[in-house]
Design brief:
Elements lengths: L1 H8 L1 E5 H15 L3 E5 L15 H5 L4 E3 L4 H13 L3 E5 L10 H14 L9 E5 L15 H5 L5 E3 L4 H13 L4 E5 L7 E5 L15 E4 L5 E4 L5 H5 L9 E4 L2 E3 L3 H11 L3 E3 L8 H11 L11 E3 L10 H6 L4 H12 L2
Parallel strand pairs: 2-3, 2-4, 4-5, 5-7, 6-7, 10-11, 10-13, 13-14
Antiparallel strand pairs: 1-8, 6-12, 9-11
Length: 337
Amino acid sequence: MSNLIELRLHVELVTVRDALNQAMDEELERDERVFLLGEEVAQYDGAYKVSRGLWKKYGDKRIIDTPITEMGFTGIAVGAAMAGLRPICEFMTFNFSMQAIDQVINSAAKTYYMSAGLQSVPIVFRGPNGASAGVAAQHSQCFAAWYGHCPGLKVVSPWNAEDAKGLLKSAIRDDNPVVFLENELMYGVPFEMSEESQSKDFTIPIGKAKVERQGTNTPVVKSHRLPVLNSLLTTSCVSLCQVINLRTIRPLDVDCIETSVMKTNHLVTVEGGWPQFGVGAEICARVMEGPAFNYLDAPATRVTGVDIPMPYAKILEDNSLPQIKDIIFSVKKTLNV
């Protein structure tokens, strides 16, 4: 009992928002080449308050408010990365990154290859991604499959506070362009963080998934950050399922997925994006092409968003996104129960 109490003393509740803020603060302090730019990131403390307090601490040269022109400030950030700086480029939402997709893909992602490895582009593109609440089709879509499709990028999608901090620090230190997909609906959610994960040296390697819950039945691969995972981990109907938090979309941790499939002989993937050419589709293809295919006792199934632009009405919005009942249905179908 005393050991449990002692352990609790070293655990603190930290929101995803504060974990991201902590990561940026520590990396800005650690490396003078790091700077943050984007719309309202400085004096307003960020549209979602993720950069709260950083402008007051580091000033105008390190925390830079930009005009509303994604094409312009993303181009500036990519050029700064090529010149030896390490920019963090915030999109107020990844829906707006479509304005800058030429800079992200043609400039940042391809330069290392096209320069024969002579020119690296150490930049992080970060901001909220995926479904929000009540903001309709143009502001509520997932870009994991869009950016995960492109060689030259690393694509990261954290779920909890520990993921957010450790992966963002790794992304800022990486010499390659990293697309860092956060979730607006998760910003205010608190998670337990250990003393170790709150240290300035704490990082999580990019490309490594995490088994959030061990199990003997179907592995439920949460292909990337979803609020529904909070409920999934406590749902008794799927209590025997192994739950994998993928954390990184590109590079994909195929070894973790294959190991889980070989153990449980089933596979269900869950994602908030559209079904066609989605992250779950890629996972199923990798399993089919690899050694784990022979271990499957039933076809792999996918739980995804509905194949329509996001509706505005709440009841339609709710039914356009994966719910716990959808996961339970897929698990039961896969297990034939």
